[in-house]
Design brief:
Length: about 230
């Protein structure tokens, strides 16, 4: 009889209060990868741009840093970012689960990850004085075209992802985040439109998108870490 009575008591003593469960550790690690992706890419790109001979942010795109003798650093930067974005996409899928945000948000972030992989495989064209000694204008090569198209597709997918993820953010009570996620794509697209005047506008628009993706992922990571 004592053994029969003590078993339920032991189970009750070791139980936890009812409530939303914390996301598995693997999901949280994947989301952290998504948080790191954009900032690491931008920090590495900025550091290279400030130290590479002939590079100027007003006329050269960060993608061009993959050219020249030290180009392998930027190629590695593309590959690492692609891997971290893919991890973040999987983490978003696990964290959001079902619903429009949980299905299409991660898919669209995955498209962005694929575009960074393509950027590593297909180099941008030289030009605008970079690498040092390159002419100001060059013809568009097949690799350069693939690089440009994949990059545009990736950032358009990112803009769409923000619109999709606004729904889950609002549903979790983060209404300000939801509003911002609907407005940030305008800033990204404005940067792309301004690239005809200066390449720096494109870089700032793309950077805005990557930073906001990191912020949104961090917000959702906080939710699943402290439900």
């Amino acid at each position: 009889m004592p053994r029969t009575l003590t078993a339920p008591i032991a189970r009750r003593a070791g139980s936890t209060p009812a409530g939303p469960a914390q996301a598995p550790r693997a999901t949280r690690l994947l989301l952290r990868g998504g948080v790191l992706a954009g900032p690491l890419f931008l920090v590495a790109g900025t550091a290279q741009g400030l130290t590479r001979d002939g590079f100027a942010f007003t006329r050269n795109a960060i993608s061009q840093l993959a050219l020249g003798e030290a180009g392998w650093i930027q190629t590695a930067n593309f590959l690492l970012t692609a891997a971290l974005l893919a991890a973040g996409a999987i983490g978003l899928r696990r964290a959001l689960r079902r619903g429009a945000g949980g299905t299409w948000g991660p898919v669209l972030v995955g498209v962005l990850a694929a575009s960074f992989l393509a950027a590593a495989l297909f180099a941008a064209d030289a030009g605008a004085g970079f690498p040092a000694g390159a002419p100001d204008a060059t013809s568009l090569s097949a690799d350069g075209a693939a690089h440009m198209i994949s990059g545009m597709a990736g950032y358009l997918a990112l803009c769409a992802a923000f619109l999709v993820l606004a729904g889950p953010l609002a549903a979790r009570g983060h209404r300000g985040w939801a509003v911002a996620s609907r407005l940030v794509p305008l800033g990204v697209l404005a940067g792309f439109a301004g690239s005809s005047a200066t390449v720096l506008a494109f870089t700032l628009g793309a950077g805005l998108g990557l930073v906001w993706l990191a912020a949104v992922t961090a917000r959702l990571l906080t939710d699943v870490s402290h439900p």
